[in-house]
Amino acid sequence: MTATHDLATPRLAAAPPAASDLLRSAFRRHAAGVAVITAHGTRPTGFTATSLTSVAAEPPLLSFGVGAGSSSWPVLADAEHIGVHILGEHQQELAATFARSGADRFAPPTRWRTGPHGVPVLEGVLAWLVCRVVARIPAGDHRVVLGEVLFGDPDGAGRPLLYHQGRFGALRD
Q: Which of 3, 27, 31, 45 is within CB 3.0–4.6 Å of 164 for a Cys-Cys bond?
């Protein structure tokens, strides 16, 4: 008799500490774009993400990972809609604010407004999207969230903010 399991909730063995350190070390060398994910529950919430990925054009889907133990997860776990904001190189402090634990991320100097479906929309970003959450997939100590793009504005000015070797940076020509 062979064992089977639900593909939606794969059973993963814990990686040995050396493998976890290897993954972290390897991905420090991987430059990633920086985004802020927002949602609204009893109050606005948000966090900095470097795991944002375009998934499909039809339907227009994106994904990102979020730690199941993060302060943002309880709101994201219930949110029907989320905001995705692509940050510019001029927004290192905004990225740091949304990455900082315990910070009031929506207090000044953060500039934001309520957007479609009540989602907090950050101002001055390179692009913003409002997405309908279509799936939340367990993945180790994280959840992968899939969102379907509904609204947005891709026309902000500037160049993208990057994350590399544990620091925020900019593209060089």
A: 31
Residues sharing a CB contact under 8 Å with residue 2, sequence separation 6 or more, in sequence order:
none
Q: Which of 99, 126, 92 is nearest to 37 (CA)?
A: 99
Digit-coded pLDDT (tens) for 151-161:
999 999 999 99
CA 30, CA 107: separation in Å to the nearest integer? Answer: 31
CA distance 21 to 30: 15
* Helix or strand (DSSP H, E) at 148: strand 142-153
Outline where the chain has alpha helix (H). 17-28, 73-78, 92-99
Contact 130, 150 (CB under 8 A): yes
How remote is the C-alpha of 123 from its chain's centroid?
17
Q: Beta strand 161-164 with 120-122: parallel, antiparallel or unpaired?
A: unpaired
Which pair of tokens denotes residue 16? 């040995």
Distance in angstroms (rounded) separating the CA atoms of residues 78 and 136: 10
CA distances from 60 to 89, 131, 149, 168 (A): 26, 9, 6, 28
- What mean pLDDT value characterizes the chain? 89
